[in-house]
Amino acid sequence: MAIEPIGKSLNFLQEVIFMSTKVVIGAQWGDEGKGKIIDILASESDVVVRSSGGNNAGHTVEADGVQYKLHLIPSGILNPKTLCLVGNGVVVDPKVILSEIDTLISRGIDVSNLKIDARCHMILPYHITLDALSEASRGKSDIGTTKCGIGPCYMEKAERSGIRMHEFVDEKIFRERFKTNLEAKNLLIERVYGGEPLKYEDYVEEYVECAKRLKPYMADCTVLLYNAIKEGKKVLFEGAQGTLLDLDLGTYPYVTSSHPVSGGVCIGAGVGPTLIDECIGVVKSYTTRVGKGPFPTELLDEMGDLIRNRGNEFGTTTGRPRRTGWFDAIIVKFAVRTSGLNSIAVNKMDTLSDIPTLKICVGYKLDGEVITELPYSLDLLAKCEPVYEELEGWEGDISGCTSYDELPENAKKYIARIEELCDVRVSMVGVGPNRTQNLVR
Ligand code: GDP
Ligand code: IMO
Ligand code: MG
User: Fold this and answer.
1) Whose atoms come closest to the Cα of 282: which ligand?
2) Whether residue 71 has its Cβ less than 6 Å from ligand 1
3) Cβ within 8 Å of residue 352, ≥6 positions away
4) How far from each other are the two terminal CA atoms of the chain, in whole angstroms?
5) DSSP readout, 237-263?
6) Do the Cβ atoms of 357 and 391 come closer than 8 Å?
7) What does pTM read for this prediction?
8) Catalytic: 59?
9) 127 in active site
10) pLDDT digit string (tens) for 258-299?
11) Ligand 1 atom at shortest distance from the alpha carbon of 437
């Protein structure tokens, strides 16, 4: 079959010879430094796409000494030429995205390249109220959600009564749908949870105003994305949350309500799997988790505090202290397998400097046996004891290293061991929060 230039054939997939579409996902429990990696890769990308989650995500990007905290807007926004798409799988809190837009504009960032898919479901005040009430009703078994209304919004979407962006921006439809949904949710709020019902009049005008402001950003992102890929443009899919927070594959029920694994991108951005040609995972050189749920390598001692303080492990979205622990090769290997990762970026190597002995979890002891795959049930995981391998640490500040070769030998050995244990190549190593502090191998 003759190869024709991209974009000329009827079905370009039969002919295509070049694509550059990369997925970047979190390979632990979130906060791996995805924002930094996306910002770096965005400088050579034409399009950056978010496809799951909502403003439960908090992605930090540091550029030219200035720090940006992004929750809904793709981390490619700092690059003026990059088209930034919020895919259909994202749940959008209109007030949050508008405040993010305003903050960026006030800091001189151009947001005219931002588009939000018309199919996105909107997070409305009753979702936030229900998130808080349902967490409170779980008592000690609460999930530790970000209380952004994520779970209730995805529940409503699955229940097929959610309000999508195209309905939100249609004032007449929105007023009607909002009223109906609010009445239904008030029943839950009052009768199930014993909470205070929300008054339609207290919210509707404010949200109608939000809708007017957001309307110009609405688009069919699936079309923009397909055409961009067809034209051979470089596309980056920005993961949110992390593999172990995946609704199906994560540590259920201590998970979020979306699909942070690479496969989630297909549905959340409306793109077929044949159109994705590379998947990169992002990890930290140790492990963190916010919220509740099992965490086999958690350090509840001084070492845990040291890593938390040195690594500034406090949530970007909620400010909560993050739980900290040693690097767990079992969970990263699980992410490599479930997302088909081609390589990983290991961030925060600088945080581990000057710790004489480092530990990596290489297996779990379960009922007297050592297993090396993540158990599928929480009960089994709770019984697992980490099996550690010790590695010699390195001394001195490595945050000024500008090439991989400059890293101390023991840091290189640590990376090499991660590669072996997780069965994946390490393509980037982070030695600081700035976009320049990334060593490409
Ligand atoms: P995300 O949710 O995956 O984008 O990650 P967050 O932004 O929530 O958390 C990662 C934190 O680590 C941010 O404060 C980043 O600025 C910071 N960070 C990223 N890479 C590195 C690194 O290599 N070294 C250090 N010290 N900090 C980093
Ligand atoms: P980024 O993209 C870390 C966690 C919450 C909680 C659980 C469910 O910054 O890596 P939710 O509000 O989603 O219903 O909470 O998921 N969680 C995250 N943890 N990073 C995130 O995003 C997270 N998004 C959700 O802490 O345990
Ligand atoms: Mg984060």
Assistant:
1) 1
2) no
3) 285, 286, 307, 358, 393, 394, 414
4) 37
5) EE--S-GGG-TTTSSTTSS-SS--STT
6) yes
7) 0.95
8) yes
9) no
10) 999 999 999 999 999 999 999 999 999 999 999 999 999 999
11) 23
